[in-house]
Amino acid sequence: MSNSSLGHLFVVSNFGESHGPAIGCVVDGCPPGLPLCEADLQADLDRRKPGTSRHVTQRQEGDQVEILSGVFEGVTTGAPIGLLIRNQDQRSKDYGNIVDSFRPGHADYTYWHKYGIRDHRGGGRSSARMTAPMVAAGAIAKKWLAMQFGIVVRGCMTQIGDVEIPFQSWEEVAKNPFFAPNATVVDSLESYMDALRKSGDSCGAGLRVQATGVPVGWGSPLYDKLDADIAHAMMSINAVKGVEIGAGFGCITQKGSEHGDEMSLDGFGSNHAGGVLGGISTGQDIEVRMAIKPTSSIRLPRNSINKAGEPVVVETFGRHDPCVGIRATPIAEAMLALVLIDHALMHRAQCADVRVDTPVVPAGRSDY
Amino acid sequence: MSNSSLGHLFVVSNFGESHGPAIGCVVDGCPPGLPLCEADLQADLDRRKPGTSRHVTQRQEGDQVEILSGVFEGVTTGAPIGLLIRNQDQRSKDYGNIVDSFRPGHADYTYWHKYGIRDHRGGGRSSARMTAPMVAAGAIAKKWLAMQFGIVVRGCMTQIGDVEIPFQSWEEVAKNPFFAPNATVVDSLESYMDALRKSGDSCGAGLRVQATGVPVGWGSPLYDKLDADIAHAMMSINAVKGVEIGAGFGCITQKGSEHGDEMSLDGFGSNHAGGVLGGISTGQDIEVRMAIKPTSSIRLPRNSINKAGEPVVVETFGRHDPCVGIRATPIAEAMLALVLIDHALMHRAQCADVRVDTPVVPAGRSDY
Amino acid sequence: MSNSSLGHLFVVSNFGESHGPAIGCVVDGCPPGLPLCEADLQADLDRRKPGTSRHVTQRQEGDQVEILSGVFEGVTTGAPIGLLIRNQDQRSKDYGNIVDSFRPGHADYTYWHKYGIRDHRGGGRSSARMTAPMVAAGAIAKKWLAMQFGIVVRGCMTQIGDVEIPFQSWEEVAKNPFFAPNATVVDSLESYMDALRKSGDSCGAGLRVQATGVPVGWGSPLYDKLDADIAHAMMSINAVKGVEIGAGFGCITQKGSEHGDEMSLDGFGSNHAGGVLGGISTGQDIEVRMAIKPTSSIRLPRNSINKAGEPVVVETFGRHDPCVGIRATPIAEAMLALVLIDHALMHRAQCADVRVDTPVVPAGRSDY
Amino acid sequence: MSNSSLGHLFVVSNFGESHGPAIGCVVDGCPPGLPLCEADLQADLDRRKPGTSRHVTQRQEGDQVEILSGVFEGVTTGAPIGLLIRNQDQRSKDYGNIVDSFRPGHADYTYWHKYGIRDHRGGGRSSARMTAPMVAAGAIAKKWLAMQFGIVVRGCMTQIGDVEIPFQSWEEVAKNPFFAPNATVVDSLESYMDALRKSGDSCGAGLRVQATGVPVGWGSPLYDKLDADIAHAMMSINAVKGVEIGAGFGCITQKGSEHGDEMSLDGFGSNHAGGVLGGISTGQDIEVRMAIKPTSSIRLPRNSINKAGEPVVVETFGRHDPCVGIRATPIAEAMLALVLIDHALMHRAQCADVRVDTPVVPAGRSDY
What we know:
The structure is a homotetramer. By secondary structure, chain A is α+β, with helices and mostly antiparallel strands.
């Protein structure tokens, strides 16, 4: 049991605060023999890092990661991989006015009552900055999954505030600052975000993440079900308030005769299951959607209290994402990859000897 | 790491199959000194058990639980509590036609490929029957939470298939076979379920579970966030495909100025957070919603394959819930209680010495 | 984290008390496909059970184990295996005089202060009776290790009280009631134990357990070293006060030029390492020795206090082993087997893909 | 489950190799509110560090630790504490001759077969250098235990090679380079070590570690017994081959009437239990002894094989401790402190509400 670790066999133990000297993690349980260098991790870190467009926080962080251990002559050794990212662009004085006050919708209040002490600078431990080491760890998982199984993990936005983003193609995602899989909505998103920023407010977002190529059989009946662990991982990302697998909340109004995905050797007929049945992967695409709440640090005045219990009006300065969901795409990918590698290792621990003659049903297509 | 256990400090290790001799669990970590007897567990088991109305499976199980250990002279001793429920009404022959075939939407296919062996009788390990021991364990958690903190955990249906169930009052829930918090929809639900059953099909459902009285401060920043552990627990219930905390997916279109719950010493102004901020309880009601897929075992013919890879048409006999979501109410309550007691114990492990002078914000009301 | 569980991937969760209705455990993580029936477990249970000679406790327990789950048509399914043993021969009134007093050297005093409640009957949870489910679980591990790797786990006594037992052959162990690997000392042991029993006192014992056939490579550098996990498992057996691997305490006066086991393709030249280097198995025999303290429940009067803090003289009635070490042989075997299967599964989780051309050094002989 | 972590609630996750850029750890679960700065950690790091006398390795490392997180304004926040120590004095070329050969008694051979890759430089992950982060983590535990309970953890040598070191006083330990609690043997130790070093050989050692002030009630019945976790922690220190609690192997020849420590309100009459009964602390001193094998890297020629399976003669250059046991004293103290804080937290998780009127028996004296 460790509050700050994720995973059972591929374990990531995270440390750091937004304005401390450094953030990082220990990645324990990576199989030996994986070619790995810092550039492998930097690509996803760069996708997540702040300051890349006017629509995200203007804090400037290179998020350069240093591999401290676990790699020898360019290859993982099986020993734990220490990862370090130095913080560089702290402006702690921006947070002077919230030293003694609690932002509505923020962890300020809960941290204070839990710990009796709080690093208020930049959100401290509750900052989305804590996701950078997870993205680095997730990049290791992604590489291993790709090399061993050809698995591809990718994500995109489905909605930003009021603007829905119909899925067009994965190729579009990297071509705009919104991780939008649709070129036609980019202008609307620009306008929407510009107006939002100007207003001093923030907005929520919808996000989708998918893994293709996952073989049938990963997961467990209960309670470390593949989908349960995915839900845990996604809900442990800052600001996530809802998670769906496959048909998700849509299944409430489905009939069993519609929801159950028919099988033939030509493939599954549909993917309402989202790639998981009974907690175990079906071989179809793993399909996950989530809802991300609006950033709680906004410039608009809100009613709250301070440490003395007195009523205060809080306006938040400092640099914040007006829609924290945007940068969550590489984070959600990382989290999904981390759950998958963990279950890949658990599966071969328990079932390495299993041989079945039954042919595997092809994935078919996901209608998402 | 244990596939079949739930929790970190209050750990429930589950065993059993639908048509095996018995099901049960070991509850490890229950604090000593809690008055406990079998009747304490039976109440919730009776709410969950099959055969109580024509709208659920007609399998007859008394679900009588035996406490095998951990209780001495009516009080818990701190030792693990062994719980045993004998299976009594198996009709394994009803499953003869699926020995070699895979039901669409069912775990048949994934179990087979994972383990190379499958107890097909009544769904084996993937049966909803496995939730009975969790309900018994959850009843222990509920009692401790109530006695130590006055916490109340309760649940109700929000929708069954196409029939929405507006919330009216908690008192209604026990008065109808649908766990519906609204007397006026009961007739519609009766008709809907009767027609569904006659059609041989099944339907999905929406469910809400709430905990009141949870103090501020339970949970962790990452990754054992209170909400992440709740998501994990709920998604580990059979057939759950989506989980929301507080505003859930509704937060996508909320602005930060709306979503962030304002605070005063009169109470929180709203509860969009669902009682959790930064992974830690706020002192407000914990509010969770989930989606439950339609039962995959239906009488209607579906296309599938068998173990030899040949195309087959599967019709499922045996006794099944046409809407497995109905009986999920006590299960979801149990799971929430189990997560809460686990975090209660973790909290006092880490923060037993913390004293804060800041007054606590009253819960306010949840607009759900 | 679970107080009452052992193992990481092959997890045994134990429950029960000496005079409660039943004892048992849940074995989670057993690979599917292992042929298993109750007779497989009963052999070792019978070796451990009480009442088999005048030199052990006269409590009569058949220790008949029931498999409640996880086995279908004679083969493990990968689901957790529930094991149940009903207690049959309790005589709780024998313990009437220690309801309020603490036996010197016994867990009475520590349980009372920890939990504020204590099942005093037969030692409750601290009874050696709790090892029966471990022996049953260990028998599963032994069978899997034997079938998959040809591993043999066996143990014997090295000393009972003042009587040393020089190793002669493994064949002798089953031929006398002392698990003595030497026929010539049996008469001395009979006399020694008869005199001890008559005196009302108890004695300590030395025990050795060995595993042959363990492949090179199981274990981890730190902290789940194979030897560290063995030490944990052995010290978690009731009454064990010391554990050695290989040369053990003898290594204090060894030089490096003597202790380090030389290698050639003819085999290791010695086995001072006891089969573990750097926390990882060498392919040699795993060699473990341990010390077991004398039973604390004796008929001789001892000074102590009662719950009120008053001085009392405690004499223990009830039925006890005058040398609890004797029956510890099958227990220690079970514990070693449980650690080995756990590391076998962890090893293939992390290193399933590793291929090395270097030839393996044969085990050579263990000079113990 | 994490190979490289220690503890359940106070969890230390270690990373690094002897000749990599840095070593360190993440300390998760430290209660908030503990005053902490780097100087608190440096004292024990300096006791462990190499190069402090001619009797230990001559590698020069300042072992300056940097606190990367979890401390704010001089006080722990409850967030994970990242600790970093840069390696400074690597001489990797010294290890050129063992790139392809396996040192007898060293982890070279087992790592190679396990992982298929090995960082040979300075022993890589198997180096005693890995204990530095544990000493730093242990210093946090020591400080908390001292401030909360007045617990003192201390260690000393009992034997170095052939030279026994009778216990005289704890005050002597810091006054000589051997952690010897006896001034009169220091000259003998100097001569013994000088001769040993000259011979190119190495020797084993005996070590004792003690904790005073531990309250009654910490630990669990099974399997996370306090003594079992201590045995695990000690055996996970490099080169430890044996662990004893209290009377240890001496209990084999004790009678029950001698071993069981009598109690009165004046104190325990003896401490054969070593402060633990039934896996739970008695309130007496925790007494642990261990055996440390001779360093396997010696200058004397030894027979071995290389990666191709060919016979080779290995002589080890590089800088090594002729008796690795000497510097193990602060390491063993750290490990004991880590186990104790972990159980302190577990105890209050489960038993925070327990109140017992029975007076506590004073510790009495430990005759060691």
